[in-house]
Amino acid sequence: MPKTRIPLLKEDKPSKKRNRKLTVILLLLFIALLAVIFFRSSVSKITEVRFQGNKYASREELLAASGLKIGGQYFAVAGSSVESALEELKTVQEASVTKKFPGVIEIGIKEFPAVAYELDQSGTLEAILSSGAAVSVIDTGIAVEKPILTNWQADDPYKAKLCQALAGISNELTSDISEIVPSPTLSFPDRIKLYTRSRFEVITAISLLKDKVSYLNQVIETEQPGLIKMLEADSYVPFHTETENPGENTDTQE
């Protein structure tokens, strides 16, 4: 009698591929859980914002412009975006952001320099920056070598150009200027009058000031007080000139 062979049943084992897929899914879920826990923890939050170098812009103004706030997401902060936002302020010339984990953001501020001072309508002294911005000097102190701007309208376009011109001139060349007044003419709409601490009166134009200021200092250092004109041509006339009668002087101040 022939023997009947019974086929063996194969065990139903999960494939290696299926196990690997399940492991990857579990690993991803674990990573996602850790990420949720991490981003909800205080470690991922902004705990401190430090500003360095600001003299005219207050911390509150800088924070508002930067968009940063304590408790915000530390990793969501883009340094270049914060820098660009701060440089929109008329007081800030340059900003640099440094992130220090965990939670600390340091921001270096380089402000526009003060080039002059001005009294506002209430009589409060303000510093005029090279950007044209006016800021209170109550808490920042006064640099006595800076000139005072007098009789300038806030919306005068030549006022901003004057500030830019003064920013391009060294303090040594402008330290004797005590006051600057607008004095426009048809030929020179940007004409100005300067008064110096050494008692000279100077007539020039904003567009010429940077090129002419060396002549101004040359006259101040070598001559007696007088009227200096620095327009298309340069001239100097002393206030006191000798007359035909010896010892007799007369004022020729304009």
Question: What characteristics describe this protein?
Answer:
rod-shaped; Ubiquitin-like (UB roll); 14 strands; 254 residues; single chain; alpha/beta; 29% helix
State the total count of DSSP E strands. 14
Shape category? rod-shaped
CATH topology of the largest domain: Rossmann fold
* Amino-to-carboxy terminus distance: 145 Å
Strand order in the sheet with the most strands = 6-5-4-7-8-9-10-11-12
Please state the CA-atom Rg, rounded to the nearest Å: 35 Å
CATH class of the largest domain: Alpha Beta
Mean pLDDT: 83
Helix content: 25-40%
The figure for the number of domains is 2
Descriptive report:
- The protein is of the alpha/beta class and 254 residues long.
- It folds into 2 domains: 42-111, Ubiquitin-like (UB roll) (Roll); 114-251, Rossmann fold (3-Layer(aba) Sandwich).
- The protein is 29% helix and 28% strand.
- The strands form 3 sheets. Strands 6-5-4-7-8-9-10-11-12 form a 9-stranded mixed beta sheet. A 3-stranded mixed beta sheet has the order 1-3-2, with helices on one face. A two-stranded antiparallel sheet has the order 13-14.
- Strand 4 and strand 5 (125-129) form a beta hairpin.
- The protein is rod-shaped, with a radius of gyration of 35 Å.
- The protein starts with 15 loop residues before the first helix and ends with a strand.
